[in-house]
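Input sequence (86 aa), recorded before submission:
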Amino acid sequence: MHGADLQGDSAVEIARKMKKDRIRVYAINIQERDAPGEIVDLTRMTGGDVFNPGDPQALANVFREIDRMEKAELEKGSAELVDWFL
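Predicted structure, token format:
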């Protein structure tokens, strides 16, 4: 997701829908400047946060922190082949 995708009230609307569905958003900002405000707003409104690691070791620490914070339940699925060729 990019900050441009969240301009206007889009971030608020998306965050409300995600929060309603109990989806918490975390973002990892890998650019040298601060994360765009829309992304910060979206993550915090859902109860998540933006991480700003400065190097590969810091990034590994971010993943360890996220692993401690969120336990996800996964459902096994399978791919469905769809052929739209006439």
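Checked by second reader. The mean pLDDT is 83.
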